[in-house]
Amino acid sequence: MIETSWLLIAFPAFGALVLLAGGRRTDAWGHWLGCATVIASFVYGLILFLSSDGSTQDTTVFSWIPVSDLQVEFGLRIDALSLAFVLLITGVGSLIHIYATGYMADDPGRRRFFGYFNLFVAAMLILVLGNGFVTLYLGWEGVGLASYLLIGWYQNKPAAATAAKKAFVMNRVGDVGLALAIFLMWSHIGSTQYSEVFAGIGQVDQNVVLAIGLLLLLGACGKSGQFPLQAWLPDAMEGPTPVSALIHAATMVTAGVYLVARSSPIYNANPDAQLAVALVGAFTLLLGAIIGCAYDDIKKVLAYSTVSQIGYMMLAVGLGPFGYALGIMHLLTHGFFKAGLFLGAGSVSHGMHGELDIRRMGGLWRKMPITFVTFGLGYLALIGFPFTAGYFSKDAIIAAAFGQEGWRGWVFGGAALLGAGITAFYMTRLVLMTFFGKARWQELKTADGKEYHPHESPPVMTVPMILLAVGSVGAGAFLALGDTLAEWLTPSVGALQESHGGVIGHSLVPFLVVGISAVGVLLAWLFVGRKDVPVERPQQVSAVVRAARADLYGNALNEALFARPGIWLSRALVFVDNRGVDGLVNGLAALLGGSSGRLRRLQTGFVRSYALTMLIGGFALVGALLMVRFG
Amino acid sequence: MDLAQGGPATALGVPSIDVAAVLPLLIVFTAGAVGVLLEAVLPRNQRWPAQVALSLTSVVGAGVALAVYVTGDFESTTTFRAEEASSGALAVDTPALFLWGTLLVLGLLALLLIADRSVEPGGAFVSKAALRGGAAGGTDTLTKEQTFTGMQTEVFPLTLFALGGMMTFCAANDLLTMFIALEVLSLPLYLMCGLARRRRLISQEAAVKYFLLGAFASAFFLYGLGLLYGYAGSVKLADIAVAAQGTDRSDTLLFAGLGLLAIGLLFKGSVGPFHTWTPDVYQGAPTPVTAFMAACTKVAAFGGLLRVLTVSFESTSWEWRSVLSVVAVVSMAIGAILGLTQRDVKRMIAYSSIAHAGFLVVGAMALTEDGLSATLFYLLAYGFTTLAAFGVVSLVRDSSGEATDLSAWAGLAKRSPLVAATFTVLLLALAGIPLTSGFVGKFAVFEAALSDGMAPLVVIALVASAIAAFYYLRVVVLMYFSEPAPDGPAVTVPGVFTTTAIAVGTIATLVLGIVPTFALDWASAGGFVF
Lengths: 631, 530
What we know:
The complex is a heterodimer. Chain A is mostly helical. Among the domains of chain A are: 293-549, no CATH class; 559-630, no CATH class. Chain A is built from 24 helices and 2 strands. Chain A has helices at 7-22, 30-51, 80-103, 110-129, 133-151, 158-189, 194-200, 206-224, 232-235, 241-250, 255-262, 264-269, 271-292, 298-318, 324-351, 369-383, 389-402, 406-435, 459-480, 484-493, 509-529, 543-549, 554-600, 607-630; strands at 57-67, 70-78. In chain A, strand 1 (57-67) and strand 2 (70-78) form a beta hairpin. In chain A, helix 5 (133-151) runs antiparallel to helix 10, helix 15 packs antiparallel against helix 16 (369-383) and helix 15 (324-351) crosses helix 17. Chain A is globular. The N and C termini of chain A lie far apart (81 Å). The mean pLDDT of chain A is 85. Residues 1-8 and 135-139 of chain B have low confidence and may be disordered. Chain B has one domain (2-523). Chain B is built from 20 helices and 5 strands. By secondary structure, chain B is mainly α. In chain B, a hairpin with a 2-residue loop joins strand 3 (396-398) and strand 4 (401-402). Chain A: Pfam families: Proton_antipo_M, Proton_antipo_N. Chain A: Keywords: Membrane, Transmembrane, Transmembrane helix. Chain A: GO terms for molecular function: NADH dehydrogenase (ubiquinone) activity; NADH dehydrogenase activity. Chain A: This is NADH-quinone oxidoreductase subunit L. Chain A: It is found in: Endomembrane system; Membrane.
């Protein structure tokens, strides 16, 4: 079984190859092939999962970069962690592929879309299955490429093109960190394979371990939209909704969490690096939640919610052995409910002629009952309604955060708890403004002057939504009760440790969370639910709201930190290049061209002068030889 | 045949000949002779197919004979021995065999270009050599006789004779054999240059120029031969080496002889300052002949130069190396700088070949195993590239024949992306860009020169290749980023012969650039024997 595990990657890679190289010939059936390859991978992954006991098994597919000391093999690692990801990626991926056959039905480029989608799945599987950091990097860049192509799908829309470029550039910043970390491993440990790196990390100087840990964190921040590289993720919602659901909610953006969990031996070896991960997570979860309150675009709210929820996961994996399994668990449950929410959002906008502004919606629950119910279940899971998925996974993280000693317990636990309250607020606001209240769309026209006719989506879209909703409700209990997931993951990330003590006891935390969430819901109802929502965005708002609407100045920060110095540097270099280098080069070229022109006159076309040239050359040659000998 | 102690004529016996070793040579020469007979006995309309079949078969057959000999249990040896004790007139050693293989493959591709009748109706060759063109310059409309679709099929036996001469030349073990081989390879080439169907005047002018200057260079060679015979008392390369290590005769004879001999060799290799014929002849000759000359003559000339320098003059390398270094620099500089202002694509490649000759001299001067194998590889790689490049040149045509003026090539990529892409690959190889054979060749040559203590020369060579890269890339830019001229030339769709030649040359350029190891191994299989 293990030897043929490369088939997992080969199916979607084959699909991408056929769809992208096959051209229009494959238009008719291309989307079905795209679904079939992912489903095949899912089935194969399921068989692998059932036959596996979760222990770590490495298999070498081929020798990839054999260069003297640098021996990189292309190998796969089948273990508990990678299998959990495989099932998430191919399972949720299959559902979203099927959904997309309906969502993209009117798009002339649907076949190409599925080609990119398959490419993404193949790259994501390489990322999680690779048994070394270089293989991971290959997948890392592959998903970045697929993400870039899909964010910019509506390429004639300037906003989409800009968003794609922004995502690409900001991801590069993180990728540089990951690449540098790999270089450091190579120079200090002499290998980039997981087995050798993790075995050798103990002998490495602590400062180097810290550097590796922070650089990996930079990579994780770029891919997972964590502070300070979070600004690209909301813009990435310019892509089609299935893309947002699969890539920018359920799978790719969680790659950073995977990276930290996978590198757990490195972070375990250096508590400072671990602390940095937790701090980034705690800060980002608040940042994302606060900004999420200020947006009126249904997908942007969900995007900032994703930023915030990944913050929770980062916080969890930053807690070390207390949190690795919890982070992964939240990642899996989040994969279900956030994908479901995005598909719901897509269904809403599908029925509302592409409208995304929730101020123009309202009262939609009558028009789209299935969407409403599935979206509602996802909403309950996200805010942690008791016994839904989010209740188990998020509460566990908050409890583990409060389980830390001293200031850490207060800071991490407090941030996570406050975040839960704000989450309840913005999600309730979203649901109220979309599905309840006055049907504001009745008095409005679409951008091209038609009336809105909200309607339920076709079954090909609603069935995946229903399945994901079932997962949103049930996945948490399935994974958490009896520590099923934690025990399953033990071979990969170590046993889950229960903290004893901490600043607030375990038994108290669920009540606190439910309580503060209830406050959040209540506040949302007070602000939004009981009065009419203005169709236009109010401009007279407080400073806090203004800051949240400006993404808490995340873009301004990036602009000041990275963009401006970069522009100054390139301007300075252009100046030097124009005045110094070009001057030299142009002068040289003029000199050579001039001498060429003068020398050309010697080529007269007359045989006599050619013979004379030869004769002079001959005299010089013989004379020189004799001079060297006798001179 | 040791002339110094030459006894009475009766003492001359039948030389012993290793027929298996020289079989490729015999096949090519015999086919040439049969080709002449075919000209005499066959009616006109049957000559072209018969000649094409004969020459292609014979070159392939020679290649097979060579392959059989090489894959067998062969030893490097000399043959055509007059007597058992001394060495023979031909050295069939590993470098000679490599060069023979190179010449046969390149010769085959050149024959394909020569035989092509699809690009120019009736072929690139005139139907009667005595035909004159119209106005001076000859960019004329064709006269009635020129449009006659027959072609001067003597070009095939001439090619075979030239090819045989080249093969003999790089295996010649004494200077007299070398001189005869030089004439055997040169005389057919002079004739072939004058056979162009279009632009008759330029073509005939090229033939006459090449002939006059070639005779001049041969005279130098012969004079050098005489002086060396006077010095060593023998024309055998090995005897000259022995004499150079200890004799009471004046060294003036030795070095003057070497200098004069070198002029003859450098002339054939179009090394500056003995290059003056090159641009005019390359431009005037029919393009398939130019391709043949550019690829094969260079192989032969440098094969001979390598052998002479290594076998006869290794002990005096300290003296001549500085002088030949100057020659190499002059050649590289002329090729690189003069190429910048050329506006005719054939002349541009001619100057490129002068620059490449300079690089080859650098490799030939490194008298190490690495130097030998690097130079041999370079010759092979350059031959493929330049042949294919001239093949592409023959495709871009307007109403008056080939459109060799560079302005006509503007925007070619928009009309014929495949032709433009092929030519781009070839130009990149000539410039020595990685992943092409040109890079590997240059790298090997420079590395050998560097390890043999010629660092300053290598630096100059690098500068020269950087300058030369400019004019190659200028053509690429012209093809891809310029707007095509409204009445620009059309790209002819070539027939199977030309297509094969261009494809093989281009693919070889890439293969030798990506996986050069096998060819480098062949080239370094062994040294000269004498």
